[in-house]
Design brief:
The chain is built from one helix and 53 strands.
Length: about 725
């Protein structure tokens, strides 16, 4: 039964939502130019001028560290940063950086080899990223619901200043951060969190029901010193969903809530843990108080101090007579974006619920727009009307460029449960999910929200990124349900106005502890309309097939340093062919193989030249296979293939590549490695599509045969496909 939990350890969380046809529809239906179903295989099409965004091949951000809910930020030099939490038990989250325009990623230099955690305070719960106007990097990390770590780097992640006390209170959740200008020169870094321990003192019984959250705000000028501490409480909420700033220093925070007919926030959720409203709080002049205002007599901050902030209702579904909500919104978050003119956009997933609080209908994606700083909002538009075959849609995220130009991404599937009967909802279905995007260039018309914007849609993931259920109960998923993807995916606008998307990719057989084992994936728009009108069409390299070039970024990144790769680890290219129907032939080319010896300064004396790829499965999650050559301390190499495994705790933590079978292979001193892989070793289907084929060079301290080796990525090729 996909029912939301009302309280877990005193924490109100969003519920399991999904499936079936929408029983509660609001706003106008979006007109669409193209529609994409939940296809198992998607082939991008790139032409000189296209109306629909097109993407390149999927880039795996990290080939070993498993995780979900990735955050993404891009600085003015097109350095792409990605972060993801690794779990409370690990006390770690990870930060990766690409300096080759998203072709490949390394852990930031300030990580601790070989585990990979940045040299910051403990965390692992939730992570967030931001960059400022002078390209400083900010990284927030939740410490097991007890506090928030916040760190800043002025050298692109090589070193960090860090604080272990950015919240100064026990019982906080889900930090989000945003910058205004240069925080050290008249700007600010803002952080918002949910105080899940409820407010204290006089407001305890007046602001929301027991177990609800209170959304808060605090500010920093240096990235590590926050004021006020504890943070300023604002108002009750279901879950805080994001924070943005405008060009004048205004701040906007989005959250879900339970709102009555008068527009009053009566709590975070109803008794079934469902929320009926999307809310935005505006601080028109930013927030710079050093002393928090104590909230009393049931008043919110904006009621107590109207000059400080205003609360605006984006959308509210009428409550039932008993005070319960007929819908659930968020699933899990209601992200907010702001365009270059200051117009606001909020998106969310919504489904109907029955009298017991269970999901009873299809989950659909909605968007609302404000052109007056949040004071008024247009009627919600059903974005997923542009993908009519998708019945269950979750975890939307939004990015905006020029006025009216937005990209919205989410996970979607055509599978519908037994709705309105039970089981119904994303946690109850076995489905192929895909990463979808809808783009609108006219969400604003004549200076006002457009009630019927057009959308073009595309499938970003080349193959289904997940098979199975998706649990949306947050940490409540420990009681049952696949939460491997965690709670969101992300999109941000690049320098050309192109979409840059990160998500959780679980195309493998490594299902552990009831949970899938995803890697973080990235893709960049290479064609189609830009969100910046003056750019017009995005221009990027066509998706590669058959072979991929090496990256200029060949180095060992750890312990505050980057050490250039030796010639034998510097990739020139990787390629694949089929000399006969029974074999794949992979070739990996490096600068030289006059010696197989690698320096221990590159992270280990065991070197592996690896190629990995994904194969979709019409009946399951798909497979990740690999083949490689390995040499320990420069000795004669071995040649092997296999399918991925994982190092596990309660669920998968690291993906590994243990050799399963010996294969035929050769290498030349000039740097060409040839691997002949029997098709029978890697699925047995000579007609299968091979997706996101990537050549890698890595170092490690122990042989791959141990099965628990964590390696150091040195170089990676551009990903490419083979479609026989």
């Amino acid at each position: 039964m996909s029912k939301k939990i009302a309280l877990i350890s005193g924490i109100s969380r969003s519920a399991v939502r999904s499936s079936a046809s929408l029983a509660f529809v609001v706003g106008a239906t979006a007109v669409f130019l193209t529609a994409a179903g939940s296809a198992l295989w998607h082939q991008p099409v790139v032409s000189a001028a296209v109306k629909t965004p097109a993407f390149g091949r999927e880039v795996i951000v990290d080939h070993q560290r498993l995780g979900g809910e990735p955050s993404i930020s891009i600085d003015s030099q097109d350095r792409v940063y990605v972060a993801a939490p690794f779990g409370f038990s690990t006390t770690a989250s990870y930060v990766w950086r690409s300096t080759d325009h998203g072709q490949s990623f390394h852990l930031v230099p300030g990580d601790l080899a070989t585990f990979g955690k940045p040299t910051t305070c403990v965390g692992g719960g939730d992570s967030a990223l931001a960059v400022d106007s002078v390209n400083r990097l900010y990284f927030a990390d939740l410490q097991g619901l007890t506090d928030v770590s916040n760190s800043v780097s002025s050298d692109q992640g090589a070193t960090f200043l860090t604080t272990c006390n950015a919240a100064n209170t026990v019982g906080v959740d889900r930090p989000w951060i945003a910058t205004f200008g240069d925080p050290q020169n008249g700007g600010a870094l803002y952080q918002t969190v949910d105080q899940i321990g409820q407010c204290v003192g006089a407001c305890d019984q007046d602001l929301g029901e027991v177990g609800a959250n209170i959304v808060e705000i605090t500010r920093s000028q240096d990235g590590v010193t926050f004021s006020p501490l504890p943070a300023q409480q604002i108002e009750p909420d279901g879950i805080v969903s994001g924070i943005v700033t405008d060009s004048n220093g205004g701040v906007y925070i989005a959250h879900t809530a339970l709102v009555d007919a008068s527009g009053k926030i009566v709590g975070g959720t109803d008794a079934n843990s469902n929320d009926n409203a999307i809310v935005v709080v505006r601080f028109p002049n930013g927030y710079n108080s050093t002393v928090p205002i104590q909230l009393q007599n049931g008043q919110t901050l904006c009621q107590t101090s109207p000059s400080t902030c205003s609360t605006y209702i984006v959308y509210r579904a009428p409550l039932n007579a008993d005070g319960s909500s007929p819908v659930t919104v968020g699933q899990d978050f209601s992200p907010i974006a702001i365009d270059r003119a200051g117009n606001l956009y909020v998106t969310w997933a919504q489904a109907s619920v029955d009298s017991t609080g269970n999901i009873s209908g299809s989950s659909q994606i909605f968007m609302a727009v404000s052109t007056d700083h949040g004071a008024h909002w247009g009627k919600p538009v059903r974005v997923s009307a542009a993908t009519p075959s998708l019945q269950t849609n979750l975890f939307p995220w939004i990015a905006a460029g020029d006025p009216g130009r937005v990209d919205i991404v989410w996970y979607g599937t055509s599978t519908l449960g037994s709705c309105p009967s039970q089981p119904c909802g994303s946690a109850a279905i076995q489905a192929h999910w895909s990463v979808m995007m809808a783009q609108s260039l006219n969400a604003i018309a004549k200076g006002a929200p457009n009630p019927a914007p057009s959308f073009s849609t595309t499938q970003i993931s080349e193959v289904s990124n997940h098979f199975g259920a998706i649990c949306t109960m947050g940490i409540g998923c420990t009681t049952g349900g696949d939460r491997g993807l965690l709670d969101f995916l992300s999109v941000t606008v690049g320098l050309q106005g192109e979409a840059n998307v990160v998500w959780a990719d679980a195309v493998n057989q490594n299902f552990n502890g009831g949970t899938s084992s995803p890697l973080i994936a990235f893709n960049r728009q290479v064609a189609g309309p830009s969100l910046y009108a003056n750019v017009g069409q995005v221009s990027g390299a066509s998706p590669a097939s058959g072979s991929g070039a090496g990256s200029p970024d060949a180095f060992y990144s750890a312990n505050g340093a980057m050490i250039a790769a030796s010639q034998n680890l510097t990739l020139k290219s990787a390629s694949v062919s089929m000399p006969d129907p029974q074999h794949y032939r992979f070739q990996i080319s490096v600068a030289s193989l006059s010696t197989l010896l690698v320096s221990p300064t590159l992270g280990g004396t065991d070197a592996v030249w690896l190629v990995r790829w994904e194969v979709p499965d019409a009946n399951g999650a798909g497979h990740t296979y690999f083949a490689g050559m390995e040499s320990d301390a420069g000795q004669a190499p071995s040649f092997f293939d296999g399918e991925t495994s994982t190092i596990n705790s309660t669920h998968g933590k690291f993906m590994t590549y243990p050799p399963a079978r010996t294969i035929s292979g050769t290498f030349t001193p000039l740097g060409v490695i040839t691997l002949d892989v029997p098709v029978a070793d890697v699925g047995g289907n000579s007609k299968a599509s091979l997706v996101s084929i990537t050549g890698l060079t890595v170092t490690q301290a122990t042989p791959s045969s141990t099965g628990d080796t964590i390696f150091n990525q040195i170089d990676a090729t551009r990903p490419f496909d083979l479609k026989p």
